[in-house]
Amino acid sequence: GENVEQHPSTLSVQEGDSAVIKCTYSDSASNYFPWYKQELGKRPQLIIDIRSNVGEKKDQRIAVTLNKTAKHFSLHITETQPEDSAVYFCAASEERALTFGSGTRLQVQP
Amino acid sequence: DAGVIQSPRHEVTEMGQEVTLRCKPISGHDYLFWYRQTMMRGLELLIYFNNNVPIDDSGMPEDRFSAKMPNASFSTLKIQPSEPRDSAVYFCASSFWAKKGHGMAGELFFGEGSRLTVL
Fold first, then answer.
1. pLDDT tens digits, B13-53
2. Are A82 and A104 within 8 A, CB to CB?
3. Closest listed residue to residue A3, CA positions, set A100, A105, A110, A104
4. Best of A96, A99, A100, A105 to disrupt the B interface by mutation (most B CBs within 10 Å)?
5. ω into residue A44 within 30 of 0, thus cis?
6. Which of A63, A110, B39, B86 has a 20 to 30 A CA-CA distance from A79?
């Protein structure tokens, strides 16, 4: 089955700086790569996703890049704000079920 | 739509007791998933259904765990007997996936979760 590795496990940045979270996956057949944000005590919610026919996607301050050859994808958050503080999960899937990474706890210091 | 609805939100029980968690997916979604979240193991897929049929239950940890989906609007996850190591947040999620060949995958919508504590 699919295996997703996520790094770093914790990330602390100053407000206004950029944050980058990286993931690798094992199954070359995976073709869907979403990112979820989970605030403390809340449910995970989709923030951005990318499919294998696209190398990069951007939505305001967040962007995701995908390198299918290397089997890795990354989340980039620019101009971070305190409300970006949360746990971020990457995921990958070829069939309908998502395999999640272990999560990155992002702390944005004001 | 009210989103994915789970109950109970919190459950505290004693070891050996039966626990039943319930889920109502978003109307029109044809996939339903049960995930378990712990600090140590993160988000683990337990089982998922397509059109009420279980597709993959390889993530179900033991025979103590069972899940059913009797119709498109209801699913249960049952633990019998429960053990302290089952303590976790259990999420139900649903999605709609377009048929293959039409390109687009579906967003996974999570319920608010059921926090289970087994003493």
1. 999 999 999 999 988 888 999 999 999 889 999 999 999 99
2. no
3. A100
4. A96
5. no
6. B39
Q: What is the mean pLDDT of chain B?
A: 90
Give the residue from chain A lying closest to B48, CA to CA.
A97
Structure tokens at A1: 């089955």
3-state DSSP of chain B: CCCCEEECCEEEECCCCCEEEEEECCCCCCEEEEEEEECCCEEEEEEEEECCEEEECCCCCCCCEEEEEEECCEEEEEECCCCHHHCEEEEEEEECCCCCCCCCCCCCEECCCEEEEEC
Euclidean distance between CA atoms A36 and B93, whole angstroms: 13
Please report the pLDDT score of residue B1 as a whole number: 64
Q: pLDDT category, B105, cuts 50, 70, 90?
A: low
Greatest alpha-carbon span in chain A:
41
Terminal Cα-to-Cα distance of chain A (whole angstroms):
41
Query: Angle CA(B91)–CA(A109)–CA(A18) in degrees, nearest 5?
Result: 80
Whole-number Å distance between alpha carbons of B2 and B14: 32
